[in-house]
Design brief:
This protein has 175 residues and is an alpha/beta fold. It is built from three helices and nine strands. Helix 1 crosses helix 2 (43-50). Inosinic acid binds at residues 41, 66-67, 72, 95-103, 148-150, 154-155.
């Protein structure tokens, strides 16, 4: 067994996602959001949260990677850019997890030069212990300890993304 029992259950995730969506709906009241899902990891979180946000949303995607198996390569690759023109628009990025912060910092800097009216980050999970750059998500689902987790969009070697809950992943079989 490589994947443990749920660390965050379907029910915990559902209720936290609703809370985040309510916060975002309040904060952006009267505005339109360009909501950018960062793929692949954020696909499930993004699909769930956009359904619950109560302000007009323009959905877009950005495909990026920096991880091989359980380690960051430190090099961020943008495989596919957003298609929307974000100048003077309110942009909200949705990411699965912030670890070193390198990926989001790179994406944020790349988008900021396009002069959006605002650019904020909503991360489903936040692992603060490994942070290498200054990067603070504006909205966080759960702060988690230094464990490698899978499920709810997050992968190990592109597997386990389809689990409906978050589980701790171990490369050995000691679970
Ligand atoms: P960062 O650049 O180190 O902040 O890494 C962010 C990216 O690494 C995330 O978008 C994930 O794709 C991946 N990542 C970091 N930690 C985990 C984890 O515990 N499980 C699965 N993917 C992770
Ligand atoms: Mg990711």
């Amino acid at each position: 067994m490589l994947v443990g029992k749920p660390f965050l259950t379907v029910e915990q995730i559902r209720s936290r996602v609703k809370e985040l969506a309510d916060r975002i709906s309040m904060d952006y009241k009267g505005n339109e959001i360009i909501a950018v899902g960062i793929l692949k990891g954020a696909f499930m979180f993004f699909a769930d949260i956009v359904k619950l946000i109560q302000v007009p949303i323009n959905v877009d995607f950005l495909v990026a990677s920096s991880y091989i198996k359980t380690r960051t390569t430190g090099e961020v690759i943008i495989h596919a850019d957003i298609r929307e023109n974000i100048k003077d628009k309110h942009v909200l990025l949705f990411e699965d997890i912030v670890d070193t912060g390198v990926t989001l910092k790179y994406i944020k800097d790349t988008l900021l030069v396009r002069n959006p009216a605002s650019l904020k980050i909503c991360a489903f999970l936040d692992k603060k212990t490994h942070r290498q750059v200054e990067l603070e998500p504006d909205y966080v689902g759960f702060a988690i300890p230094d464990k490698y987790v899978v499920g709810y969009g997050l992968d190990y070697d592109n597997k386990y993304r389809n689990l409906p809950y978050i589980a701790v992943f171990k490369e050995d079989s000691s679970l």
